[in-house]
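Before a computer can learn anything about folding, someone has to put a protein's shape into writing. The three-dimensional part falls to structure tokens, numbers that each stand for a local backbone shape. The protein below has been through that process, and both of its lines are reproduced in full.
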Amino acid sequence: MRRGRVTEDAVERPGRQLGVAGVLAVGGVLLALTALTYLLHRLPHGAWSLPVALLIAGAKGLLIALFYMHLREQRASNGLVLLTSVVFVAVLLTVCVLETRTRFRPTIPPGPFPVEPLPGRLEDPGGAHPSGPAGPREP
């Protein structure tokens, strides 16, 4: 009975396998990045919050893909598939961020009734409503 050929994709390279100490080290780095994510979400960094969060998430995803999914031990074609998917995700995220950055602020259409603020809102920066309580008016 003839056996099929084993392709290079299925063969792991013995010199690139990760030992127990390596697995624990990668796990420690992943825990440190998770703690960094938690600590940084409490700091006000404005426009940098999304890029920093995506950078940390990307680093954690890369570590998981390389070491726990064994892409580091496989042939380069698997890495090309990973790189292509990362590029597509980056393009989609860029399109989403640019689309939300270019939205215009909706205007309040004119009407016969005075505009009152939404419940729970303290002030209206546009000054489109009369100053006073938002409840029913007494005659």
Observations:
- Residues 25 and 94 are 32 Å apart (CA to CA).
